Amino acid sequence: MMEAVVIGVGLHPFGRFAGKSAMDMGADAVRLALADAGVTWPQVQGGYIGSLEVANPDAIVDRLGLTGIPLRGVFNGCATAGTAVAMAARAIETGEHDLTIAIGMDKHPRGAFAADPSVAGIPAWYGQTGLFLTTHFFGMKINRYMHEHGISQETLATVAAKNFRNASGNEKAWRRTPLTVEQILASPVLNHPLRQFMYCGPDEGAAALVLCRADQAHKYTSTPVRVRATALRSRRFGAFEVQSPSLPVGERVESPTVDASRAAYELAGIGPEDVDVAQLQDTDAGSEIIHMAENGLCKDGEQERLIAEGATEIGGRLPVNTDGGLLGNGEPIGASGLRQIHEIVLQLRGVAGARQVPDTPRVGYTHLYGAPGVSAVTILST
Protein backbone atom coordinates (compact mmCIF):
# COMPACT_ATOMS: atom_id res chain seq x y z
CA MET A 1 0.00 0.00 0.00
CA MET A 2 1.33 3.41 -0.94
CA GLU A 3 2.10 5.76 1.96
CA ALA A 4 0.62 9.28 2.09
CA VAL A 5 2.69 12.28 3.16
CA VAL A 6 1.81 15.88 3.99
CA ILE A 7 3.56 18.32 1.65
CA GLY A 8 1.70 21.55 2.40
CA VAL A 9 -0.13 23.18 5.31
CA GLY A 10 -2.21 26.35 5.52
CA LEU A 11 -3.91 28.00 8.49
CA HIS A 12 -6.27 30.97 8.61
CA PRO A 13 -5.97 32.62 12.06
CA PHE A 14 -8.48 31.45 14.69
CA GLY A 15 -10.62 34.03 16.52
CA ARG A 16 -13.41 36.43 15.51
CA PHE A 17 -13.52 37.98 12.02
CA ALA A 18 -16.58 40.14 11.53
CA GLY A 19 -17.79 40.29 7.95
CA LYS A 20 -15.67 37.37 6.72
CA SER A 21 -17.41 34.09 5.91
CA ALA A 22 -16.18 30.63 6.85
CA MET A 23 -15.97 29.85 3.14
CA ASP A 24 -13.60 32.78 2.54
CA MET A 25 -11.46 31.70 5.52
CA GLY A 26 -11.35 28.18 4.11
CA ALA A 27 -10.30 29.45 0.68
CA ASP A 28 -7.49 31.47 2.26
CA ALA A 29 -6.27 28.40 4.15
CA VAL A 30 -6.30 26.33 0.95
CA ARG A 31 -4.28 28.95 -0.92
CA LEU A 32 -1.69 28.96 1.88
CA ALA A 33 -1.47 25.15 1.83
CA LEU A 34 -1.13 25.05 -1.97
CA ALA A 35 1.63 27.68 -1.87
CA ASP A 36 3.40 25.76 0.89
CA ALA A 37 3.24 22.58 -1.20
CA GLY A 38 4.24 24.32 -4.42
CA VAL A 39 1.20 23.07 -6.32
CA THR A 40 -1.80 24.72 -7.95
CA TRP A 41 -5.49 24.01 -7.41
CA PRO A 42 -5.95 22.28 -10.82
CA GLN A 43 -3.32 19.70 -9.75
CA VAL A 44 -5.49 18.58 -6.79
CA GLN A 45 -7.29 15.36 -7.77
CA GLY A 46 -9.70 14.95 -4.84
CA GLY A 47 -10.47 16.23 -1.37
CA TYR A 48 -12.51 16.12 1.83
CA ILE A 49 -13.95 19.14 3.60
CA GLY A 50 -15.62 19.45 7.01
CA SER A 51 -17.77 22.03 8.77
CA LEU A 52 -20.54 22.17 11.35
CA GLU A 53 -22.03 25.52 10.40
CA VAL A 54 -21.63 25.52 6.59
CA ALA A 55 -24.36 23.46 4.93
CA ASN A 56 -22.53 23.04 1.62
CA PRO A 57 -18.77 23.31 2.31
CA ASP A 58 -17.93 21.76 -1.07
CA ALA A 59 -19.16 25.01 -2.64
CA ILE A 60 -15.70 26.35 -1.82
CA VAL A 61 -14.75 25.31 -5.37
CA ASP A 62 -16.49 28.53 -6.51
CA ARG A 63 -13.60 30.43 -4.91
CA LEU A 64 -10.78 28.04 -5.88
CA GLY A 65 -11.66 26.97 -9.41
CA LEU A 66 -14.33 24.81 -11.04
CA THR A 67 -12.06 21.92 -12.02
CA GLY A 68 -14.64 19.19 -11.49
CA ILE A 69 -12.72 17.33 -8.78
CA PRO A 70 -14.58 15.13 -6.30
CA LEU A 71 -14.70 17.22 -3.08
CA ARG A 72 -16.62 15.30 -0.43
CA GLY A 73 -18.18 16.84 2.67
CA VAL A 74 -17.47 15.01 5.96
CA PHE A 75 -18.77 15.48 9.50
CA ASN A 76 -18.06 13.51 12.67
CA GLY A 77 -18.71 16.08 15.38
CA CYS A 78 -15.51 17.17 17.12
CA ALA A 79 -13.56 14.52 15.16
CA THR A 80 -14.53 16.00 11.78
CA ALA A 81 -11.04 17.16 10.82
CA GLY A 82 -9.56 13.81 11.81
CA THR A 83 -11.97 12.20 9.38
CA ALA A 84 -11.07 14.63 6.58
CA VAL A 85 -7.34 13.92 6.82
CA ALA A 86 -7.92 10.17 7.20
CA MET A 87 -10.00 10.06 4.03
CA ALA A 88 -7.54 12.23 2.10
CA ALA A 89 -4.72 9.88 3.13
CA ARG A 90 -6.80 6.79 2.35
CA ALA A 91 -7.48 8.00 -1.21
CA ILE A 92 -3.71 8.03 -1.77
CA GLU A 93 -3.02 4.77 0.05
CA THR A 94 -5.56 2.91 -2.08
CA GLY A 95 -4.30 4.42 -5.32
CA GLU A 96 -7.45 6.41 -6.06
CA HIS A 97 -5.51 9.68 -6.26
CA ASP A 98 -1.90 10.91 -6.26
CA LEU A 99 -2.56 14.34 -4.72
CA THR A 100 -5.39 15.23 -2.33
CA ILE A 101 -6.48 17.94 0.08
CA ALA A 102 -8.17 18.03 3.50
CA ILE A 103 -10.01 21.24 4.42
CA GLY A 104 -11.81 22.36 7.58
CA MET A 105 -13.60 25.61 8.39
CA ASP A 106 -16.22 27.01 10.74
CA LYS A 107 -17.75 30.22 12.03
CA HIS A 108 -19.62 29.57 15.28
CA PRO A 109 -21.81 32.13 17.06
CA ARG A 110 -20.69 33.34 20.48
CA GLY A 111 -21.49 31.20 23.52
CA ALA A 112 -21.43 27.49 24.29
CA PHE A 113 -22.52 24.92 21.72
CA ALA A 114 -26.24 24.18 21.99
CA ALA A 115 -28.95 22.50 19.94
CA ASP A 116 -32.28 20.70 20.20
CA PRO A 117 -31.38 17.25 21.64
CA SER A 118 -33.65 15.59 19.07
CA VAL A 119 -31.25 16.55 16.25
CA ALA A 120 -28.52 14.60 18.04
CA GLY A 121 -30.70 11.53 18.54
CA ILE A 122 -30.98 11.91 22.33
CA PRO A 123 -34.10 12.39 24.50
CA ALA A 124 -35.49 15.78 25.46
CA TRP A 125 -34.80 15.25 29.19
CA TYR A 126 -31.07 15.20 28.41
CA GLY A 127 -31.26 18.85 27.48
CA GLN A 128 -33.82 19.75 30.16
CA THR A 129 -31.40 18.56 32.89
CA GLY A 130 -28.59 20.69 31.48
CA LEU A 131 -26.42 17.87 30.16
CA PHE A 132 -26.53 19.17 26.61
CA LEU A 133 -24.53 22.15 27.82
CA THR A 134 -21.09 20.62 27.40
CA THR A 135 -19.49 22.77 30.12
CA HIS A 136 -21.70 20.85 32.56
CA PHE A 137 -20.63 17.44 31.24
CA PHE A 138 -16.90 18.22 31.29
CA GLY A 139 -17.14 19.68 34.80
CA MET A 140 -18.70 16.44 36.08
CA LYS A 141 -16.17 14.31 34.22
CA ILE A 142 -13.04 15.96 35.60
CA ASN A 143 -14.57 16.27 39.07
CA ARG A 144 -14.88 12.47 39.23
CA TYR A 145 -11.39 11.97 37.73
CA MET A 146 -9.79 14.34 40.26
CA HIS A 147 -11.44 12.44 43.12
CA GLU A 148 -10.31 9.04 41.83
CA HIS A 149 -6.74 9.98 40.85
CA GLY A 150 -5.68 12.80 43.16
CA ILE A 151 -5.56 15.71 40.71
CA SER A 152 -5.57 19.18 42.28
CA GLN A 153 -7.19 22.44 41.21
CA GLU A 154 -3.69 23.94 40.96
CA THR A 155 -2.82 21.35 38.30
CA LEU A 156 -5.91 22.33 36.29
CA ALA A 157 -4.78 25.96 36.43
CA THR A 158 -1.17 25.05 35.53
CA VAL A 159 -2.39 23.34 32.35
CA ALA A 160 -4.46 26.37 31.37
CA ALA A 161 -1.57 28.77 32.11
CA LYS A 162 0.76 26.66 29.92
CA ASN A 163 -1.61 26.72 26.98
CA PHE A 164 -2.25 30.47 27.16
CA ARG A 165 1.53 31.01 27.46
CA ASN A 166 2.13 28.85 24.37
CA ALA A 167 -0.61 30.74 22.50
CA SER A 168 1.16 34.02 23.24
CA GLY A 169 3.95 32.82 20.95
CA ASN A 170 1.55 31.87 18.16
CA GLU A 171 0.61 34.76 15.89
CA LYS A 172 -2.45 32.86 14.60
CA ALA A 173 -3.92 32.00 18.01
CA TRP A 174 -7.04 33.69 19.40
CA ARG A 175 -6.27 34.20 23.08
CA ARG A 176 -2.66 35.40 23.16
CA THR A 177 -2.57 37.08 26.59
CA PRO A 178 -0.67 34.95 29.12
CA LEU A 179 -2.47 34.29 32.41
CA THR A 180 -0.91 33.20 35.68
CA VAL A 181 -2.04 30.25 37.75
CA GLU A 182 -3.30 32.72 40.36
CA GLN A 183 -5.36 34.68 37.81
CA ILE A 184 -6.92 31.48 36.50
CA LEU A 185 -7.79 30.25 40.00
CA ALA A 186 -9.36 33.64 40.78
CA SER A 187 -11.68 33.53 37.75
CA PRO A 188 -15.38 32.62 38.27
CA VAL A 189 -16.43 28.99 38.59
CA LEU A 190 -18.59 27.94 35.63
CA ASN A 191 -19.11 24.26 36.34
CA HIS A 192 -17.23 23.01 39.39
CA PRO A 193 -14.30 22.49 39.47
CA LEU A 194 -13.75 24.25 36.14
CA ARG A 195 -13.41 28.04 36.01
CA GLN A 196 -13.81 30.63 33.27
CA PHE A 197 -10.23 30.44 32.02
CA MET A 198 -10.14 26.64 32.06
CA TYR A 199 -12.56 26.30 29.11
CA CYS A 200 -12.05 26.78 25.39
CA GLY A 201 -14.68 28.67 23.41
CA PRO A 202 -16.29 28.18 19.99
CA ASP A 203 -14.86 30.65 17.44
CA GLU A 204 -13.91 30.97 13.77
CA GLY A 205 -11.09 29.75 11.58
CA ALA A 206 -9.95 27.40 8.83
CA ALA A 207 -7.09 25.07 7.95
CA ALA A 208 -5.99 22.89 5.04
CA LEU A 209 -3.45 20.14 4.27
CA VAL A 210 -2.10 18.99 0.90
CA LEU A 211 -1.08 15.32 0.70
CA CYS A 212 0.59 13.24 -2.01
CA ARG A 213 2.10 9.81 -2.66
CA ALA A 214 5.33 9.35 -0.72
CA ASP A 215 7.24 8.31 -3.84
CA GLN A 216 6.30 11.60 -5.54
CA ALA A 217 6.97 13.93 -2.60
CA HIS A 218 10.45 14.84 -3.87
CA LYS A 219 8.81 16.76 -6.73
CA TYR A 220 7.29 19.21 -4.24
CA THR A 221 9.29 19.36 -1.00
CA SER A 222 12.43 18.22 0.78
CA THR A 223 10.54 17.93 4.09
CA PRO A 224 7.53 15.61 3.63
CA VAL A 225 5.79 14.49 6.81
CA ARG A 226 4.61 10.87 6.85
CA VAL A 227 1.04 9.99 7.83
CA ARG A 228 1.85 6.93 9.93
CA ALA A 229 -1.68 6.23 11.16
CA THR A 230 -5.21 7.58 11.39
CA ALA A 231 -7.91 6.04 13.57
CA LEU A 232 -11.50 6.96 14.43
CA ARG A 233 -13.59 5.26 17.10
CA SER A 234 -17.10 5.79 18.47
CA ARG A 235 -18.14 4.91 22.04
CA ARG A 236 -18.92 1.36 23.11
CA PHE A 237 -21.79 0.29 25.35
CA GLY A 238 -20.86 1.18 28.91
CA ALA A 239 -18.72 4.21 28.14
CA PHE A 240 -20.12 7.46 29.56
CA GLU A 241 -19.20 10.14 27.04
CA VAL A 242 -20.52 13.42 25.65
CA GLN A 243 -24.18 12.98 24.70
CA SER A 244 -24.44 9.57 26.41
CA PRO A 245 -27.99 9.46 27.83
CA SER A 246 -27.14 6.80 30.41
CA LEU A 247 -24.35 5.01 32.28
CA PRO A 248 -25.04 1.25 32.42
CA VAL A 249 -24.46 -0.48 35.74
CA GLY A 250 -21.50 -2.83 35.63
CA GLU A 251 -17.89 -2.83 34.55
CA ARG A 252 -16.66 0.48 33.20
CA VAL A 253 -15.75 0.49 29.50
CA GLU A 254 -12.78 2.36 28.06
CA SER A 255 -13.46 5.62 26.23
CA PRO A 256 -13.32 5.92 22.42
CA THR A 257 -10.04 7.82 22.88
CA VAL A 258 -8.41 4.70 24.36
CA ASP A 259 -9.72 2.59 21.49
CA ALA A 260 -8.61 5.07 18.78
CA SER A 261 -5.21 5.56 20.39
CA ARG A 262 -4.44 1.84 20.63
CA ALA A 263 -5.52 1.30 17.02
CA ALA A 264 -3.33 4.17 15.81
CA TYR A 265 -0.23 2.97 17.69
CA GLU A 266 -0.69 -0.51 16.22
CA LEU A 267 -1.07 0.84 12.69
CA ALA A 268 1.97 3.10 13.08
CA GLY A 269 4.07 0.35 14.61
CA ILE A 270 5.23 2.57 17.47
CA GLY A 271 4.32 3.11 21.10
CA PRO A 272 3.56 6.10 23.33
CA GLU A 273 7.22 6.18 24.38
CA ASP A 274 8.15 7.18 20.80
CA VAL A 275 5.98 10.34 20.76
CA ASP A 276 8.06 13.55 20.87
CA VAL A 277 5.27 16.17 20.76
CA ALA A 278 1.48 15.90 21.16
CA GLN A 279 -1.62 17.95 20.44
CA LEU A 280 -4.45 16.74 22.69
CA GLN A 281 -8.10 17.82 22.82
CA ASP A 282 -8.28 20.37 25.62
CA THR A 283 -11.93 21.40 25.52
CA ASP A 284 -11.12 22.29 29.12
CA ALA A 285 -7.97 21.99 31.25
CA GLY A 286 -9.28 18.78 32.78
CA SER A 287 -9.72 17.17 29.38
CA GLU A 288 -6.02 17.60 28.59
CA ILE A 289 -5.17 15.87 31.88
CA ILE A 290 -7.53 12.94 31.25
CA HIS A 291 -6.41 12.61 27.63
CA MET A 292 -2.73 12.32 28.60
CA ALA A 293 -3.58 8.99 30.22
CA GLU A 294 -6.22 7.87 27.72
CA ASN A 295 -3.69 8.29 24.91
CA GLY A 296 -1.14 6.16 26.75
CA LEU A 297 1.27 9.03 27.44
CA CYS A 298 1.18 8.40 31.22
CA LYS A 299 -0.74 6.42 33.80
CA ASP A 300 -3.85 7.74 35.57
CA GLY A 301 -2.75 9.98 38.42
CA GLU A 302 0.81 10.57 37.15
CA GLN A 303 -0.29 13.87 35.61
CA GLU A 304 -0.10 15.66 38.99
CA ARG A 305 3.67 15.03 39.22
CA LEU A 306 4.45 15.34 35.49
CA ILE A 307 2.74 18.71 35.14
CA ALA A 308 4.39 20.02 38.33
CA GLU A 309 7.77 18.97 36.90
CA GLY A 310 7.09 20.81 33.63
CA ALA A 311 7.07 17.64 31.51
CA THR A 312 4.36 19.01 29.19
CA GLU A 313 6.01 22.41 28.68
CA ILE A 314 7.73 23.15 25.33
CA GLY A 315 11.12 22.34 26.87
CA GLY A 316 9.79 19.35 28.81
CA ARG A 317 9.99 15.61 28.19
CA LEU A 318 6.61 15.49 26.40
CA PRO A 319 5.44 18.90 25.12
CA VAL A 320 1.63 19.09 24.84
CA ASN A 321 -0.39 21.68 22.90
CA THR A 322 2.61 23.77 21.85
CA ASP A 323 0.49 26.20 19.81
CA GLY A 324 -1.88 26.92 22.71
CA GLY A 325 -4.33 24.08 22.07
CA LEU A 326 -8.07 24.73 22.09
CA LEU A 327 -7.74 26.95 25.17
CA GLY A 328 -5.54 29.38 23.22
CA ASN A 329 -7.06 28.93 19.77
CA GLY A 330 -10.74 28.22 20.41
CA GLU A 331 -12.65 25.52 18.57
CA PRO A 332 -14.00 26.04 15.07
CA ILE A 333 -15.01 22.39 14.88
CA GLY A 334 -14.36 21.68 11.21
CA ALA A 335 -10.85 23.13 11.37
CA SER A 336 -9.65 22.29 14.88
CA GLY A 337 -7.98 18.95 14.11
CA LEU A 338 -6.25 20.29 11.00
CA ARG A 339 -4.89 23.14 13.14
CA GLN A 340 -3.35 20.46 15.37
CA ILE A 341 -1.68 18.76 12.36
CA HIS A 342 -0.51 22.15 11.03
CA GLU A 343 1.34 22.64 14.31
CA ILE A 344 2.84 19.14 14.29
CA VAL A 345 4.09 19.60 10.71
CA LEU A 346 5.81 22.87 11.69
CA GLN A 347 7.36 21.14 14.72
CA LEU A 348 8.64 18.18 12.66
CA ARG A 349 10.06 20.55 10.06
CA GLY A 350 11.80 22.50 12.84
CA VAL A 351 10.23 25.82 11.81
CA ALA A 352 7.82 26.54 14.69
CA GLY A 353 9.74 29.65 15.76
CA ALA A 354 9.49 30.75 19.39
CA ARG A 355 7.50 27.63 20.31
CA GLN A 356 9.81 25.14 18.57
CA VAL A 357 10.43 22.02 20.62
CA PRO A 358 14.20 21.56 21.17
CA ASP A 359 16.15 18.94 19.21
CA THR A 360 13.57 18.86 16.36
CA PRO A 361 11.05 16.12 17.20
CA ARG A 362 10.62 13.14 14.88
CA VAL A 363 7.18 11.80 15.91
CA GLY A 364 4.06 13.92 16.44
CA TYR A 365 0.64 12.89 17.76
CA THR A 366 -2.77 14.56 17.40
CA HIS A 367 -6.02 13.70 19.19
CA LEU A 368 -9.63 14.86 18.94
CA TYR A 369 -12.50 14.02 21.26
CA GLY A 370 -16.07 15.18 21.73
CA ALA A 371 -19.66 14.91 20.61
CA PRO A 372 -21.21 12.51 19.90
CA GLY A 373 -18.76 10.34 21.89
CA VAL A 374 -16.11 9.96 19.18
CA SER A 375 -12.33 10.24 19.05
CA ALA A 376 -9.80 10.55 16.22
CA VAL A 377 -6.02 10.08 16.42
CA THR A 378 -3.42 10.87 13.77
CA ILE A 379 0.27 9.94 14.12
CA LEU A 380 2.86 11.68 11.93
CA SER A 381 6.62 11.38 11.62
CA THR A 382 9.59 12.57 9.60
Give the helix proportion (percent range).
Answer: 25-40%
Give the overall silhouette.
globular
Strand arrangement, major sheet = 3-2-4-7-1-8-11-10-9
Ranges with pLDDT <50 over ≥5 residues? none
Give me the strand/helix succession: EHEHEHEHHHHEEEEHEHHHHEE
Q: For the report, how would you describe the main beta sheet?
A: 9 strands, mixed
CA-CA gap between termini: 19 Å
Q: How many strands in all? A: 11
Oligomer type: single chain
From the alpha-carbon coordinates, what is the Rg to the nearest angstrom?
19 Å
Mean pLDDT: 95
How many helical stretches?
12
How does this model look, in words?
With 382 residues, the chain is an alpha/beta fold. Helix content is 34%, strand content 19%. It is built from twelve helices and eleven strands. It has helices at 22-37, 61-64, 80-93, 124-128, 134-149, 153-168, 181-186, 256-268, 285-294, 303-309, 325-329, 333-349, and strands at 4-15, 46-50, 71-74, 99-107, 189-191, 194-195, 204-213, 225-234, 277-279, 363-370, 374-381. It has a nine-stranded mixed beta sheet with strand order 3-2-4-7-1-8-11-10-9.
Features:
about 375 residues, two-stranded antiparallel sheet, 12 helices, globular
Task: Outline the secondary-structure elements.
Layout: E1 4-15, H1 22-37, E2 46-50, H2 61-64, E3 71-74, H3 80-93, E4 99-107, H4 124-128, H5 134-149, H6 153-168, H7 181-186, E5 189-191, E6 194-195, E7 204-213, E8 225-234, H8 256-268, E9 277-279, H9 285-294, H10 303-309, H11 325-329, H12 333-349, E10 363-370, E11 374-381
Parallel strand pairs: 2-3, 2-4, 9-10
Antiparallel strand pairs: 1-7, 1-8, 4-7, 5-6, 8-11, 10-11
Helix pairs in contact: 3-12, 6-9
